[in-house]
Amino acid sequence: MSLIDFVQQMLQNPMLLVSTLLTLGVILVNGWTDAPNAIATCVSTRAIGVRKAIVMAAIFNFLGVFVMTSINASVAMTIYNMVDFGGDAQASLIALCAAMAAIVLWATAAWYFGIPTSESHALIAGLSGAAVAIQNNFSGINGSEWVKVLYGLLLSTLFRNQNRMKCERFFGGAQVAGGAAMAFMHGAQDGQKFMAVFLLGAALSGGHSEMTDFVVPIWLMILCSVVMGLGTSI
User: Which residue(s) pair with 141 in the sheet?
Assistant: First the structure.
C-alpha cells in the first residue's frame, strides 16, 4: 500500500482517519512515557547529561523502529494476529478506535499522576478488551499469540534476587551504550506494535476482516519512527 493509497482510503472512510490519528497519538505518548526507561540509569549515574541522553534516546528510538522493521516485522505480525474482532469490518474498526482511545487516556493519566506504565501492555489489553466486548466472549483472543506476552514477564522475574550493587558495578562501564541499546530496542519493539494497528485499521477500512498477512511499507516505518522519536524528545 502506498502513502497516496492510504490517504485516499482515509478520506473515503472517516473512521480510518480517526483510527490513524488515535494511533499516532498512542505512538507519541509511548515515546514520551517510555523515554525514561532508556536513559534513567545512565543519567542517574551521571555517565551522560540529561539533554544529551534525550537526544540519544530520540535518535536510537527512530533507528530502532526503522531498522528492525526493515529486517524483521515479526512483532507487528504478533500484534496484528493477537485478536479477532469478528466479520463486521466497520464494527471492528470502531472497536479498534475504542482500544486506541483507551490507551491514550490511560497513558496520559498514568503520566500525569506519575504511575509507572507500559503502553505495550496497554495496547494488548486494549485490543483484547475490545475483541471481548465486540464478540461478548473470549473467542476473539488468539491464545497462541497472546501467550508470547507472558514470556517476557517470566524472563524479567528471573533476575529479581540479584545483588543490585554487583549488577551496577558490572554494568557501570556500559551505561551510555546500554541506554542507547535500550532506546533502540524500545523503538524496534514498540514501533512495530503500532504499525500493526495502522495496517489492521487499513484492512478493516477496506472490508478485509480476515486478512492475516501484510507487508510494512517504507513510508509507514518512517512515519512511526518520526512520531516516536518526537514523543521521546518531548
Answer: 83
Distance CA 166, CA 171 (A): 9
Band the pLDDT of 155: cuts 50, 70, 90.
low
Task: Say if residue 35's pLDDT is above 70.
Answer: no
Q: What is the structure's pLDDT at 15?
A: 82
List pLDDT tens digits, range 162-184. 666 666 666 555 566 767 777 77
- Report pLDDT for 160: 67
Residue with cell 496497554: 122
Residue 162: what pLDDT? 66
Question: How many Cα neighbours within 13 Å face the side chain of 218?
Answer: 0
Whether the per-residue pLDDT at 12 is higher than 80: the answer is yes
HEC readout, the chain: CCHHHHHHHHHHCHHHHHHHHHHHHHHHHHHHHHHHHHHHHHHHCCCCCHHHHHHHHHHHHHHHHHHHHHHCCHHHHHHHCCECCCCCHHHHHHHHHHHHHHHHHHHHHHHHCCCCCCHHHHHHHHHHHHHHHHHCCCCCECHHHHCHHHHHHHHHCCCCCCCHHHHHHHHHHHHHHHHHHHHHHHHHHHHHHHHHHHHHHHHHHCCCCCCCCCCCCHHHHHHHHHHHHHHHHC
Using a 10 angstrom Cβ sphere, with 0-12 exposed, 13-18 middle and 19 or more buried, the burial of residue 118 is middle
